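FIELD: query
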Amino acid sequence: MENNKIEASTKLKDILEEYPWLLEEAIKLDERFKMVNSPLGRTMLKKATIKDLAKLGKLNVEDVVNEISKMIDNHVEEE
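FIELD: result
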């Protein structure tokens, strides 16, 4: 992922390959994201974007992008 730039069109698969811990953090953001751990959810991950994740959680896309970016920045700072 180029320069850790997260956008609405960023594929979840790409983010989770680079930041595997992020799924657990997303679940903390909204409990509905737990469904991503289901067989159907894992299948969806291959094509789903941040925009899809926001829609699933009935959240504002920009808020999700900002929260994920913030989680990544905080995690990188802790390392």
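FIELD: remark
The helical segments are 12-18, 22-29, 39-45, 50-57, 61-78.
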